[in-house]
Amino acid sequence: MPNYFYQRKTIFFDPKMVSSQLVSTEDVSRRKTATSEAVQRLHVQTDSRVFADMADQEDNPCLSCGACCQHFRVSMYMGEMASSPGGTVPDELVSAVNPFIVCMKGTEMGHGRCVALRGVVGKPGIRCEIYPLRPTPCREYRVWREDGTPNPDCQRLRKNIGLAPLQRHAALASSTSAVAPTPKAPPLPPDGPYIPEAV
Prior knowledge:
It is a single chain. Mean pLDDT is 77; it is low at 1-36 and 172-185. It is built from 3 helices and 9 strands, in the order E-E-H-E-E-E-E-E-E-E-H-H. Strand 8 (117-118) and strand 9 (127-128) form a beta hairpin. Helices cover 10% and strands 18% of the residues.
């Protein structure tokens, strides 16, 4: 598991544990036992985006599914291409959508298999060939939500390929403290919002 320099906190989502734990990145090296058991690891970025990493272990449901990788169009800003500073996605695996957006080859129209997917969908051993280099949409896609409920898209896609639904897991009770809250709009003045007059 790479330790990303840009992460602020790491949230370990371990379905085997009664409660999940919120730890700082400084604690990661001391938590090897917990990380080896965690199936979904969430990394809160400095810009408050949450990236998910799935463990390469037997109880990872993704390693016997892969349905999302053949369903969604995986679009991203062209700056994620390896030829761009800080980009990671190999250029030869993307197609241009417009001058600023690219997508993973195979997913251009949606309902197409991603070029980086290896193995048979719905069977053990399926995996992403570029998992450590995958684009942001793949990093942001979560199998479980903070409250422990499975992602409804996962449930629907798994059903479509004949797989059993995912089970609910222990909630990440303290995860909301790691994710920046959505800013609230300032209260409206008593006479309503300001609307500029037409000139």
